[in-house]
């Protein structure tokens, strides 16, 4: 019996993605027999390939839970999340959301946010290149214009906000030697690639509202106002200089358009 | 059609290596004598960052082979237009010396399946693949090399021999072929065929590039030898011998060492390339001597 190609590939894909399905009709061997071990090579290639892609993108997450746990979690994700395109470099963008809903990992409440740093790291690595704005450019802006200015986040930059010290956890597990995290409190992390190296920075707590506001496209004046309202520790000059020096922004913008 | 031989931008008949990010800096610092570098197209489809930065720099000094793993030429459904456009942009940007893809499928309604899946060799599949290659070559504005697959199963529906299938595609689409000698060994062992006979029947005059890689070995449910195309070790000795047999027929051809998993240090890759280079040089010498004797 001959199946058309579309039906045959649907049957093949179906058996490939479900380990409990039999080898599809028409798949044979030189002996003329069905051989499940041979078909399983394809099944294995798909799931091991996807799990390894996740392990490569989420190495700290893997260190936090151990390889065996991670591979089981990756396999569970891969079962229901196939890459949307052949761009495996984008695979796992929503793996942190999956981790948040993955019951066996629920005791590690910080795990999804640590994974969000790693997801952002890869996006930052492949993001469009842009020259970050320099302090000199800001210094050249007339003081009365400053408050109405907006800063455009660099294409590689992202803020990850967490109730947990995710920056410290990421950093402590990033190197071979794991060091304990001393100060257990909420952190906001900036992931950015001003040039060719992706950098992960923990923002000073007093700068968090300012940075978040700017990334949400608030004017410098509004962002500073919100930060001052939250606490007297905020230092406008230091906060702005800090973010600009980390390469967080790639352009200045006034309401009528870009500042040259 | 042997257009690849006369194209000014063809790869050199030397050994080449897969380009890995962990070797970017060493390559630029040391400029090792490697015939060409090959990259998987899909790894360079991001907007920017180190991949493009380094590929721009490295292609100033080395010929580039662009190897696609995601076009799904054998899919029953139509080609992914967006993916074709990404390929065209990449080709326009880097002007690679060669572009190759696989006789396989990998996309389905459920998503990208991340493996090179096998095809039944029938008149229907043949027509489908020919349409897809015509469309691809037209969109990309260049000839592609189509790679022979490694397979673990057969299709009861198949009516056409694999070599005839590839030769017919090449004849109808004017595409070239990429001969993966490791794939030949893997499929030959897995399907009780003679690898040397496969090579002897292969239209080597259409081959623009050869691939060599290491396979893994296991057994199937009947305890028969089952080779897996793993790309995680040095080239095995029987594949080296089959490569020598191939070169005796084809003459020296650009030859890639594929080592994509458990990638070793760069010196180990260079040693693999040096072995292939020595075999290419020895075949060139053998041919020169034969020409001199004939004269």
From TrEMBL, chain A:
This is Putative DNA-binding domain-containing protein. It holds the Pfam family DUF2063. It comes from Rhizobium giardinii. Gene3D superfamilies: DUF2063 (1.10.150.690). Residues 8-99 form the Putative DNA-binding domain. It comes from the Bacteria.
From TrEMBL, chain B:
It comes from the Bacteria. It holds the Pfam family MbnB_TglH_ChrH. Signal peptide: none annotated. Belongs to the UPF0276 family. This is UPF0276 protein GGD55_004523. The lineage of its organism: Bacteria, Pseudomonadati, Pseudomonadota, Alphaproteobacteria, Hyphomicrobiales.
